[in-house]
Amino acid sequence: MDDLDDELRRLFSDDRLDVHSAPVSTEAVLRGADRRRRRRNAVAGTLALVAVAGAGIGVSRFGMSSPDGTAGALLTTSTSVPTTSSPPPPVTVYSTETVTLGQPPNSTGGNTGKPSSGGTSKSTPKPPSSPATPESQPGRYGTLALGMSEADALATGSLVEPGSPADAEARCKAYATKSVPDTDAVVVSPARGIVRITMPSYAKTPKNVGAGSTVADVKAAYKNAAQSGSDVIVQMSATPPWSYVFKTDGTVVTTVFMRLNANDCISV
To answer: Of 53, 89, 196, 262, which has the most beta carbons under 10 Å away?
Structure first.
C-alpha cells in the first residue's frame, strides 16, 4: 500500500505529465464575452418574436370565431362610434279642472243649471229706452257763433261792412258775410250778440240736410222737426239754446237759418 502511494506521488510530481495552456490575451477574453452576449440577445429576441407571433395567431383565431368581429376591430384600427343620447323620461302632466255643480231641481222639476247663490234671484227688467233727443251741437258756422258780440264778430273778418239796420227801430244790425252776399245774412243784437246766421246755399247740416233737400228729408233726419207754416223748425239742445229754421217753398228747402232762441230782434 505504501508503495502505491509512493508511485502516485512520483507520477504527479513528474513535470512531463503537466498540461500547459496556451497564453490567452485580455482582448481575446473580451471578444469571447461579447460574442456570447450577442448570441444570448439574439436568442432572447427570437424567443420574443416567436411569442408575439404566437399571441397574434391566437388573437386572430379568437377574432375569427367572434360573430361581430369586435376583437379584430380592436387590433386593427379604433373607430369612433357616435353616441346617441337616450330620450328624456316621459313627463306626466296632471291637469286640474274645476267643475261647478248646478243647483238641484226645484219643486216644479226645473233646473236652471246655474250655481245657487243662496237667495232667490229676480230678473231686473231693462229700463225703457229714452226717446231720441235733438243733437247737441254749438250754434256755429265757420268763425261765427250765435251769441258772439258784434265786436268779436267783426274781429273774425267774416262780416262785410258797413252793416245796415235790421228792424224799424234800428236796434239790431244786419251784415252780409263773405260766403252769403245777402245784406241780412247775419243779424246782431246789441244785448244778445249774433241772433241769426244764414248758411250758404251749398252748406249742409251735420245730418246732410240743406238747400235742395225736401221737407221729408228734414223730418227723416230730425225726429223732433216741427212744421210752422212753410217753415220747418228743429230745436237744438245746446248752450245757448238755438234752432235750425228750414225755409221751404212747401216741398223743398230754399234757405237754412241758425237762430238764437232768446233773441230780441223783431225781424228775426
So the answer is: 196
